[in-house]
Amino acid sequence: xxxxxxxxxxxxxxxxxxxxxxxxxxxxxxxxxxxxxxxxxxxxxxxxxxxxxxxxxxxxxxxxxxxxxxxxxxxxxxxxxxxxxxxxxxxxxxxxxxxxxxxxxxxxxxxxxxxxx
Length: 117
Prior knowledge:
Structural class: alpha+beta
Strand content: 35-45%
Order of helices and strands: EEEEEHHH
Strand order of the largest sheet: 1-2-3-5-4
Shape: globular
Number of strands: 5
Distance between the termini: 26 Å
């Protein structure tokens, strides 16, 4: 199943050789672990969508065989350059993202939490 969902990136890490595993909090599906295939290559088009506290419209591909979710594309909505320019605000934003990541169950949507984030 392929869906478009707006979400915020909470954290990312390398996965395999050129992939990234990204935790995305979406309004419709809650917290999801999304695999961005090839996003760690130097000229990857989806690389900008994997940065922490980026708000974007993601094209998500849900697997029928397992619980995996892959990213098939997307569009940036907001990147928050004023937060990234200030070190203290960046640390606070990362702390908030970590808090949401740790305290929310996977695939449990909550529109109020998404709005606050």
